[in-house]
Amino acid sequence: MSKEAKPAQKRIDQFFSGPGCRADDWRDLVEAAKVWARGGDRAKYDAALADLSVTEEFHGYPGLQLMAALREAAVAGDAAGSLALSTRITQALQTKSFRQHAGDASDNDEGNGDASDLLVPTSGSARRPYFETLIVTGVSSNSWPSLAAEWRKLRRPADQFVYEPVFVGSLEDAFCATLLNPNLAAVVINEGFGLRSRHDAPILRTMTSSARLNDESDASALGLAHIIKRIRPELDLYLMSNRDVEEMAGNPEANVARRIFYSIEELLELHLSILEGVQDRYDTPFFDNLKKYAQRPIGTFHALPIARGKSIFKSDWIRDMGEFYGLNLFLAESSATTGGLDSLLEPTGNIKKAQDKAARALGADRVFFVTNGTSTSNKMAVQALLAPGDIAIVDRNCHKSHHYGMVLAGAQPLYVEAFPMTEYSMYGAVPLKTIKQALLNAKADGRLDRVKMLDLTNCTFDGHIYNTRRVMEECLAIKPDLIFLWDEAWFGFARFSPFLRRRTGLGAANEIEAWMHDPKSVTAYEQQQAELGKNPSNEVLLKTRLIPDPRQIRLRVYQTNSTHKSMSAIRQGSMLSVKDVEFHTVEQQFKEAVFTHASTSPNQQLIASLDVSRRQMELEGYGLVANAIEVAFAIRKAVNNNPLISKYFRVLGADAMVPAPYRQSGFTDYLAAGVNWANTLKSLDDDEFCLDPTRMTLVCGTAGFDGTQFKGMLANEYSIQVNKTSRNSVLIQSNINNTRSDVAHLVRVLAEIAGEVDRGLAQGGANAKKTFEARVKSLMKDVPDLPNFSHFHPSFRGDAGTKTNEGDIRSGFYTAYNAAGCEFIRLGDPEIDRRLKAGPELVSASFVIPYPPGFPIMVPGQVITQETIDFMRKLDVKEIHGYDAKEGLKLVRAEALAKIGKPKPGASPKLKAAS
Predict the structure, then answer these.
(1) How many alpha carbons lie under 13 Å from residue 866 in its C-beta half-sphere?
(2) Which of these, 340, 249, 336, lies nearest to 301 by C-alpha position?
(3) DSSP 3-state of 65
(4) Which of 116, 258, 710, 715 sits 20 to 30 Å CA-CA off 216?
(5) According to the UniProt record, where is the region Disordered (predicted)?
(6) d(CA 359, CA 353)
(7) pLDDT digits over 336-375, tens only?
């Protein structure tokens, strides 16, 4: 860098910038080097190199030597050398080839060998997974190159992994490195480092000030360890003390560290400990044993003909299936639970070990692997935790598995409504005030003891995320032993994002648990009680952010994840996570639920994929999720900022998806002007609802397409698959599988479609424009009102209270089994309108679930209202579960309702045969 170059302006606290942004910065450097090498202005190259130099300090590759070599070439005015070296580094980063040659750096003590050696492969070297280790030290940065050489000398051919050290000298830099470097797998914290970074970091200063880190004395090794563990709990931490190491080791606060060392007297032991820690995460007990099993000569005399593949590969007729899937799939098939394998129903061996590792990764006490989807995970949880007659507060718009779970358990759902988004024919999430009102109504009716569970979807299909901690704390303030079931089918990846983790059920549960053990929690509770007085009104309680009594809380949290929806698991792979202080009281019930729902012939490959997906997320999930978020930002920006595409399409921001009353921080969207991680964190901490950045509602109605039509067009004509639609939108979601090339393909297709719409309007004349505007108006303005749940018919209310609206859905469900007691009326029949006005009431005998929106608009035993019929008649979707247009609505006959006996508390009513 020339002496005349301006100081680096790049900020180290731009945490929106992910792996893709780093790659762009390197490509920009190469382009600037090309301009300089052709005789152009070198100032742009100097500026780009200065910017890169700031954040590259936090990465092991290119590292100290190569960055120094780049600067030296610039100072020497060597444009050709700068271009050559920057190009080679960029290519190594793009191809990740540096990971395979990380052991090839010069090992001389000064660390000043030929920097190009880092790019030269070692012939015949075996592939070893690569990671980086952050070393926080108070030693002068002048000594870092020689320290790096000392660390490299510890490498041995026997090591299964290879890593590069990354040195920082302050708490702020350690914080930034933890956030910006996805390759980190371990952190070594020495005492004696400083607090402040020497780089510009105003947002970071705001965050450290809020954490009360204002003085150099606040930069303690243990304090930093806790900060890093909160950001990235998967990282192994090693503390190095040059004082009373025994005292630190005996401090309960030091349990965040994997091991504590005295100074650096045993550098080899530290090196081996780092490798052992990564090995612990790398081990996949079930998958490892399945691979060994597949390589053994096995005689199979059990009922699984495809095991070992002989019936496949010796066949003239189905050999193509074997050739398609490969031999290992069949070698690894077995119905045995011995010989190195294990039983999913009663795991005691490697499946149990794999589940324990998954519990550690997800922050749970225990995890159950489920091989037939989160529908089954949800039903298992509901069946195990609820008994006949128990009341559960349930989001009426949740997945159908929860409703069916209530039927199976005989529990009585007390449905609560999410806020409507009528314009887009979808619902959001359930406001906390609605949930609290349901609890307070049950209390007023003397029925709070029967309310056992709160069952919510987080995040929703469309990306609405609850403030899980606030929901649980305020509900626990009313009922301290309430069970929480968070259906996070779409949100499993959030555990591995420090920003989104707080919004998961388990993330919030761990925060609540820590708060409960803080003496300040009791003080906060007692202070609020004094302010509220002895008998606060419900109105006051609804307006107050309630604090629970930490001494009374029984923390009982369950979380289900569709691992296959957000991690690298085979379809139907799911995990059910438990953090329940009372689990011992329901453990046998859980086993019964597993026996009820789990197959006795679970798929081995599916179990293995759950094991492997955990390994991947613990070792590289942080970077993969950061990339998924960055891909989503790229899509949002490309769609909404493109002049042509944005004429007909747009991705809805948080301000459109979350009504202002639920965005108390004033947050509008991730890409709005002036938004950074400081105000984003405030939104994530304080707002009642946030929007998952990876879920994008793309409005297509403004281009004249309904959601189903547009989804079909994308799939059939452009080979783009999306999942969910609404009347006038499609849902696009990014995941850990997506690349920037996927973004480019999507944007190109949207530009092509927008161009066709544009040309059609320009060439079609006034009539075409009029037809188009009418179509858009129909899709965007003439939308049906969304129906709320009405109520259960009194025949299914039994012992219900006066203020609550729960019902015996199980008895309603089984009325449909009595064919004589049911009738069918077509949707357009005037009889429906007559009965809506004059009676008798229309009572649904089944679930009716249109896709979209994908939630039950009718459940068994529900009284059907005018708004529900109006919605059904305006629906133009083809897929409606539980409804046959030829037969019509399935209803319970009035005379059958009259013969249904009143149920006793906790029991389902007996059905009498209809005449």
Answers:
(1) 7
(2) 336
(3) helix
(4) 258
(5) 98-121
(6) 10
(7) 777 778 899 999 999 999 999 999 999 999 999 999 999 9
